[in-house]
Amino acid sequence: MEIDKLASLEGVDAGEQEAPLKRAPTLYLIILFKLAKGVLAVFLALFLYCQPATHLPAEYEQLMDRPSVKQVFHYLRIHPENKFFMHLTRQIANATDKEVRVAVKVAVIGALLWSLFPLTEGVGLMFRVKWAGWLAIVESAFFVPVEIYELVKEFSWFMVGVAIINIGIVWYLYANRERLFHHHLRHRPHHSQA
Fold this sequence. Notes:
This protein is mainly alpha-helical. It has one domain. Helices cover 73% and strands 0% of the residues. The chain is elongated and about 60 Å long.
């Protein structure tokens, strides 16, 4: 009787107490995936920030001539002779040190800002916050048409995998949104020993 009075004083009916959230292994994988994306973006920003901005044309040529880079490009079906890389090579060859420093700063800021999305989603999903679930759904759904467009332009098993992962994330989070994020505010009555 005393517990019901305390609960009603706090605005929570004793019968309204929600059961604890169940384990969700797929959600944990999504959280890990989102956090890994965010941390990789932060590391990319730190890597770019720590790189010296001198001798960029020579360093770019050395990078593109490495067998490991050529192998990765071949595996991902990226051709260094395509328009994008040829344009990039010309831009790097003609870049001054000041332009390189500005471009690196922009890339660092961009990578850090982009890392905020997956990090926010991952942390929000860890605490099962409803808006984080919707943010993850919208962000993942946003990229599905882009990935399909890339697949239509040029087929790549890597892009198939990325598209399947994003479609899976959208489907899982949307289909299980009530079960995963059903709590509103959890009020726990404080019991006083008076």
